[in-house]
Amino acid sequence: MASTSAGNAAPVVEPHSSVLSWDRARATARDAGEALPAETRPLDGAPSQTAPSQTALSHALAAPLIARTDLPSFDTSAMDGWAVSGPGPWRLTGGEVLAGDAPSPLAAGDAVGIATGAPLPPGATSVLRREHGRVDGERLADLVGGRSDGQDVRPRGRECSQGEVLLPAGTTVTPAVLGMAAAAGYDRLEVHRRPSAELLVLGDELLSSGPPRDGRVRDALSPMLVPWLQGCADVVGCRRLPDELDALREAISASTADVVITTGSTAAGPVDHLHTALAELGARLLVDSVAVRPGHPMLLAELPSGGRLVGLPGNPLAAVAGVVTLAMPLLDRLGGRSEVENRTARAGDLLPHPGSTRLVPVLVRDGVAQPLPFGGPAMLRGLTLADGLAVLPPSEGPLPEGDVEVLPLPWG
After folding, report:
1. What SMART domains does the annotation carry (predicted)?
2. What's the pLDDT at 271?
3. Model confidence pLDDT, tens digit, residues 232-241
């Protein structure tokens, strides 16, 4: 590590030496790592009060989810009523078939009561809904008529067949995926390890409580970024640091996270020490400024430890731009997640920048993306109402008619 004492000048790195396009920067971030190793995790289990849940939830599938059985695995009743064999009227055999039963065969012309989800007796041809039947002694009549074989029956294999690929590798395990996996016969899933992330929030001007005062402002990034990052990473720490080179360099050097994320200090101001700290640590810059508004002074570096560092600008909306441009593509790749297909919408009153991609908080109504007010780099008000961020390619004039890409937001 280089000394910063008098007589030993610290290395100086000129920021923004090679500005990348927005598309190129995202691709570089995605290519800056490989999916972390696979592990098997249970579908359910009580999470610890002090550690992340050990289940597969929120991880990415490391292998396709393949059905281990037909679903349903047997013909079942879709309604409460009677299982019937052949055309009516029918003779009632007595009793009722419930879910979990192993029913006896049904002879032609017979009927037996059945509950929704119960297995269809061998020999049954359809189900008569309770509201469509009339019982007279031991006889059952159809009040509606026009019956067909298989009516109100969920046939075996209707949802999937054994061996069918239900979900591809790279799919994020949601609560719905856990339910599907359980239905398909799984107790554990093979998933990629989630990357670890540490957030370092820089700035002497930041307050941790109360309203802004005495020239200082609230730290708005920690409350927003930590839960955002938790969606795809295990956040192992969040610290606020002063605008001091030594403190920043030591915090980066000491971190064991797969990805260190910093806020602020990415430009070339008098207290912007990130470039110098990275140079002293021997880091390699992969991205150093991006042609995007807001947020152009963002960066991505490879640390000597093998980890990565994403430097976000300090202004709140600019930091959001850095997250979607560099942090999320990198974290998704490390976590083995498939690339998200962004939605499109028709462009409303959206104004591009002549030389940079613009990311604009928008509302999407009736398929049209309209900009929200309060979309400046230091503002979050527009983002709170946004359905996503419209991606406006550089243009000297108004956007041509057509669709624009809209990046999803985790809370949208």
Report:
1. MoCF_biosynth (SM00852)
2. 87
3. 999 999 999 9
In DSSP notation, 262-288 reads: EES--S-STT--HHHHHHHHT-EEEEE
Pick the CATH number of 76-154 from 1.10.3720.10, 3.30.428.10, 3.40.50.300, 2.170.190.11: 2.170.190.11
Handedness of CA 345, 351, 353, 358 (dihedral sign): negative
Q: Where are the alpha helices (DSSP H) in 152-287?
A: 175-183, 221-230, 245-254, 274-281
The residues near 227 (Cβ < 8 Å, ≥ 6 apart) are none
Superfamily of domain 343-408: MoeA, C-terminal, domain IV (2.40.340.10)
Q: Determine the pLDDT at residue 204.
A: 81
What residue type is 71 in one-letter code? L
70, 75, 118: which is closest to 96 by C-alpha? Answer: 118
Which three-class secondary structure state does DSSP give residue 351?
coil
